[in-house]
Amino acid sequence: MGIEALSRGARMVYFVELSSKAAELIQDNLQSLQIEAGFQLLKIDTSKALRRLEAQGKSADFIFLDPPYRMREAYLRTLELLAGSPLLRSTSIVIAEHDRKFDPSDTFGRLHRYRKLEQGAAALSFYQRN
Question: What global pTM score does this model have?
Fold first, then answer.
C-alpha cells in the first residue's frame, strides 16, 4: 500500500515492519521500482514506531494497518494507541485490513469506524476521530 501511495504522489511514507524478511522485501521492491526518496523503513515494533514518530512531531493523513491476520491483539493494541495519538489529526483516516471473520470493533476511544468493506476473506475497516 505504501509503494502505491508513493507512486500516486505521497510526500512521505513510513513503512513499519518488524519482520526482517518482510522489511527486506519492501526494500527490494522499492529498489526495483527505483524509488529512492520519500520513505523511511522502520524495522521496529508498531508501538515503538508510533512513539518515535510522535516524538518527532509527525502527523499522518492516512495510516494503513495490515498485521498478519492471526495477530488480532496487534490490531486492538495499535488502534487503541492511535485513538489517543497526536499522529492523527481530525481529518486523518486509519484503514485496518483484517480477516472478514474478525471484527476489531467500532470504537477505540475517540476513534470510530465509519465504514467497513468486505471482499472475499478480507475486510477493510475505516476509522476517524469524532
Answer: 0.90
Q: Is residue 115 within 8 Å of residue 126, measured between CB atoms? A: yes
3-state secondary structure of 99: strand
3 state DSSP class of 11: coil
**What is the 3-state secondary structure of 95-127?**
EEEEECCCCCCCEECCEEEEEEEEECCEEEEEE
Can you tell me whether residue 70 is helix, strand or coil? coil
CATH number of the domain residue 61 falls in: 3.40.50.150
Query: Residue 70 belongs to what domain range?
Result: 57-130
For the stretch 14-69, pLDDT in tens is 999 999 999 999 999 999 999 999 999 999 999 999 999 999 999 999 999 987 77
31 located within any domain: no
* 18 part of a folded domain: no
Which residue is it, cell 470510530? 112
State how beta strands 122-129 and 107-108 pair: unpaired
CA dist 61 and 74 (Å) reads 21
